[in-house]
Write a structure and sequence with these properties.
heterotrimer; A mainly alpha; B mainly alpha; C alpha+beta; A: MetI-like fold; 2 domains; 12 helices; globular; B: MetI-like fold; 73% helix; 0% strand
């Protein structure tokens, strides 16, 4: 086989894989604009006859048919919980990551390993004691309760990512700044932070996505519209007697859009962060 | 005590910087785990709060170990992880190598490759529940429209088909992590050793086997480590796709824990099971972390 | 006035002591170079003066004020780092003006000071570029500019030229020397390169294993090395060293060769004492190709193993008592390997060291 033929073949196979990656998502998006009637028709209707925004209207209570599921509240809950826990996780992670990147202390590698291992605890296993403890102290079914938990599960990752980025900033820059008259605190904010900023931003977006997408813990720790997040809300649809496929698809689109935008914003930094965090020890 | 004091004084700054991270993890992970460790030795049921003080020793563990449902869920989980991780790694490696060779449209392909990473596992589960549905699913519709199947195939009902469907969803979701990190490794790879090997008379396969692959190993292990940190998120997928059913045919360790704890309200026994799942996760992470360290040392020369 | 005084300075990391009680007085406006092989404690000492490393013991004073516990910003020093440590997210102008901005000076004053520094170092054309857009030499200049902008009491240089190529290094060496003449300031300069030390220093401090081995002007340490370490570390090629025994006003080597005790050492050695005889290649010259006015000489016949013509002179490799030695032929003629030459050794420039300790027997 000639080289050009081989290249073309590889391209075709890759394209096919990409199609498999894209197709399910696209199908869901398409279904979000169709009516349930069309989705349920047998034999299948392949070409959509009429596209509609009714599903979205229903979700936000704007159309004639109002949905029983308060997606608007869920969206707001998700937003508040994800943003707050992300900010906390980034601040805490930055502090810890800086300690790991810049300071030497006995027990450092052990501490790092334990931090990472704390992330391995399956959400469902962690949800059992948290469910009980949180009900005792009144954090169950509150946004605060979920925020605290999400902060903790994001900290290991933000520590890891920021540590990698701070290590990329040469140590002598901070020293030069201190000789130039900065306090260590000023040296951090004026020199090291701006240089690690893109990395810190991607750590933040990673944390946001984790919080935004989390289900196992939230499904046990939230109960009502006060605190339920979008992924938990999605399951509301299946609890009904007949599944509202089109409604679910519309909600899926709502969940995926913020994640989509954020991921594209940081894809480059994200890979860099994960890679040199691991390869260069 | 004095030793601890001296340690605290000598390393006051890093300790202060680390303390928020340690504190929040103590509060949200370690403390609850200690509590659940205790309850795993009690007969705690959610509906009878005073049963928390009902100490039963190792009875929960004995029951769990003697429970056929637990062992089949455990075995299914290990099988599921083994199949999924291996296929994800192989497919990711293949995909990365292909994308690395492509020049036309490579950036777009790379971006598309990241697509599944941003999906919430619950969405992935829903997406494939929808696709594999026996009456309205895309797959069944397509098979029937093309005349490949006359009857709807019960993807989410049959024992093995459901296992395959869940594995497919899991692999769809996680292959891209491998592909992306391995591709980053390919981009970072120095050209000299490859050229030197070609001059030394290596075939394409030999170059891949002896130069490219060893260089990629740390990247593969990073992906494995990141992946194994979060193996349990398959719970979300299964929960939405089949809920462990029908009749426990797709029960994984994690769905079994949830059912025991919340549906049967047997917290004590669920916590005993949870410790098995924690050990499983730690084992996977530790295993790949060790490999990563070894591969890194091995690569010191690069 | 900014003299720098080190009193019994000790640095240890846990149980490991790396600097063992150094004493050093640096005068106002003096250019002092700390030189030594890597790991000798010179950089650590400099960083202790800067305040970047804690002092484990002893006292550091700048301008009469003890600074042991002061943070770097309170010491009024500036430092040029080995890797320049330019702030990559700032332009050259911002880099230069950073210290003044931190000090809260008015913008007009900052502009004036940065323009001044830029003029001194020829940076005026690059003011709006970032460090990433500069060449190695330009970055070096910016690093120096950043140091001079704030008129510090003391300049610290930490191997500033080691990342430059040979040609640029020579060029920047000259600029640093000129800079010192322009902005009279106390300078402490660390390097492992003895040529840099010789050319730049008012006074050289040679360090080894956390101790100061010798302090003196470049010529002093070159002509009167305190021990064999300094003798081989300073000067290129390194001093020839041959072990022997004092016997009747001469030093006898293996193979029945002997050389007279150099004049400066007569009366300082005893019969039968084991010594190391040292002389530089510059002072071992084939007869007829020597410098004139070299005082008392001794004659030895040498078989040439290898000749390295450098143009103005030729380095000759030979062997004395089983030890490889080097000589120099001035106004050279071609020399073939194996040729036997009668050579003159200028005894005024020869040295004797204790064979055991390596210390000079001059005092």
């Amino acid at each position: 086989m000639s080289r050009a033929m081989k290249d073309r073949l590889i391209w075709a196979v890759t394209f096919l894989v990409m199609l498999i990656i894209c197709l399910p998502g696209l199908w869901v998006v398409l279904s979000a604009f169709r009516t349930n009637g069309e989705i349920l028709t047998k034999p299948a209707v392949w070409i959509p006859q009429n596209l509609t925004l009714d599903n979205f209207r229903a979700i936000f209570g704007l159309g004639e048919n109002v949905l029983a599921i308060p997606v608007g509240s869920y969206f707001l809950n998700s937003l508040v919980i994800s943003v707050t826990s992300t900010v906390l996780a980034v601040v805490i992670g930055m502090s810890g990551g800086y300690a790991f990147a810049r300071h030497r202390f006995p027990g450092k590698s052990g501490a790092f390993l334990w931090l990472m291992l704390s992330r391995t605890v399956p959400g469902i296993a962690l949800s059992l004691p948290l469910f009980i403890l949180w009900s005792w102290i009144g954090l169950i079914d509150t946004k605060l309760g979920v925020i605290v938990v999400y902060t903790a599960i994001n900290v290991p990752f933000t520590v890891w990512l920021t540590e990698g980025f701070f290590r990329q900033v040469p140590r002598d820059l901070s020293e030069a700044a201190q000789i130039d008259g900065c306090t260590p605190w000023q040296a951090f904010w004026k020199v090291e932070f701006p240089l690690a900023r893109s990395g810190i931003a991607s750590a933040g977006i990673f944390a946001f996505l984790t919080s935004w997408n989390e289900y196992a813990l939230a499904s046990q720790l939230t109960r009502s519209t006060d605190s339920k997040t979008l992924p938990v809300g999605l399951m509301d649809f299946t609890a009904q007697f007949t599944i509202d496929w089109a409604g679910m698809c519309a909600m899926a689109v709502i969940i995926i859009i913020p994640a989509l935008i954020l991921t594209f914003l940081v894809q480059k930094h994200l890979i860099a962060g994960l890679t040199f965090g691991g390869v260069k020890g | 005590m004095t030793r601890f004091r001296r340690y605290a004084r000598d390393h006051a700054v890093p300790l202060a910087l680390l303390s928020p991270a340690v504190l929040v993890i103590l509060l949200v992970v370690l403390l609850p785990l200690l509590f659940s460790f205790y309850t795993s030795f009690s007969n705690y049921r959610l509906i009878r709060p005073d049963s928390l003080w009902d100490w039963v020793g190792f009875r929960n563990y004995a029951r769990v170990l003697g429970d056929g449902d637990f062992w089949s869920a455990f075995g299914r989980t290990v099988l599921f992880l083994t199949v999924a991780l291996n296929l994800e790694m192989l497919l990711g490696l293949g995909l990365a190598l292909m994308v690395n060779r492509i020049t036309w449209g490579q950036r777009t392909m790379r971006t598309i490759m990241m697509f599944p990473m941003m999906f919430s596992p619950i969405l992935v589960g829903f997406q494939f529940k929808y696709l594999f549905n026996d009456t309205i699913g895309l797959v069944n519709n397509a098979l029937q429209s093309l005349g490949l199947a006359s009857e709807p195939i019960p993807f989410l009902v049959d024992r093995w088909l459901a296992f395959a469907a869940i594995s497919f969803a899991e692999i769809w979701m996680s292959t891209s992590i491998f592909a992306i990190l391995i591709l980053a490794g390919l981009f970072a790879m120095p050209k000299d050793p490859i050229e030197a090997a070609r001059v030394d008379g290596c075939s394409n396969w030999q170059v891949f086997r002896h130069i490219t692959l060893p260089f990629l190993m740390p990247f593969i292990y990073i992906a494995m480590t990141i992946r194994s940190l979060d193996v349990a998120r398959a719970y979300d997928i299964v929960d939405v796709m089949t809920g462990g059913g029908p009749a426990g045919r797709t029960e994984l360790l994690w769905t079994l824990i949830a059912r025991t704890a919340y549906d049967d309200a047997r917290m004590g026994r669920a916590n005993a099971m949870a410790y098995f799942s924690i050990l499983l996760s730690i084992f996977f992470t530790w295993f790949f972390f060790r490999k990563l360290m070894a591969a890194r040392r091995h690569l010191g020369a690069f | 006035m900014a003299e720098v005084t080190l009193r019994k300075i000790v640095k240890s990391y846990g149980a490991l002591e790396v600097v063992h009680g150094i004493d050093l007085d640096i005068a106002h406006n003096e250019f002092v170079v700390l030189v030594g092989p890597s790991g000798c404690g010179k950089s650590t000492t400099l960083r202790m003066i800067a305040g970047l490393e804690e002092v484990s013991g002893g006292e550091i004073a700048i301008g009469g004020r003890v600074v042991n516990t002061l943070p770097p910003r309170a010491r009024n020093i500036s430092m040029v780092f080995q890797n320049y440590a330019l702030y990559p997210h700032m332009t050259v102008r911002e880099n230069l003006g950073f210290s003044l901005k931190i000090a809260g000076r008015p913008p007009a004053e900052i502009d004036k000071a940065t323009d001044e520094a830029a003029a001194i170092l020829g940076l005026a054309d690059y003011m709006d570029r970032t460090p990433g857009e500069l060449s190695g030499g330009q970055r070096q200049r910016v690093a120096m500019g950043r140091a001079i902008v704030r008129h510090p009491d003391v300049f610290l240089f930490d191997e500033p030229l080691s990342n430059l190529d040979a040609k640029l290094r020579t060029q920047m060496r000259v600029e640093i020397k000129k800079l010192h003449q322009k902005v009279k300031t106390t300078i402490v300069y660390v390097t492992h390169d003895q040529v840099e030390a010789m050319t730049l220093a008012d006074r050289i401090v040679i360090m080894k294993d956390g101790h100061i081995v010798q302090t003196g002007t470049p010529l002093e340490v070159f002509e009167r090395p305190a021990n064999t370490f300094v003798a081989t570390f300073i000067g290129s090629p390194p001093m020839n060293l041959v072990d022997g025994v004092v016997a009747g006003g001469a030093v006898r080597f293996a193979g029945d060769v002997s050389l007279p005790v150099p004049p400066a050492f007569r009366g300082r050695v005893q019969e039968g004492q084991r010594v190391t005889y040292g002389f530089r290649a510059d002072n071992l010259m084939p007869a007829g190709h020597a410098m004139t006015g070299i005082g008392e000489t001794a004659e030895i016949d040498l078989t040439i193993a290898l000749a390295e013509p450098l143009g103005a002179e030729t380095i000759l490799l030979s062997e004395l008592a089983g030890v490889e030695i080097q000589g120099k032929m001035y106004n050279p003629r071609p020399v073939a390997a194996g040729e036997r030459l009668s050579c003159l050794l200028a005894l005024d420039h020869a040295h004797l060291f204790d064979a055991e300790t390596g210390a000079s027997l001059r005092t």
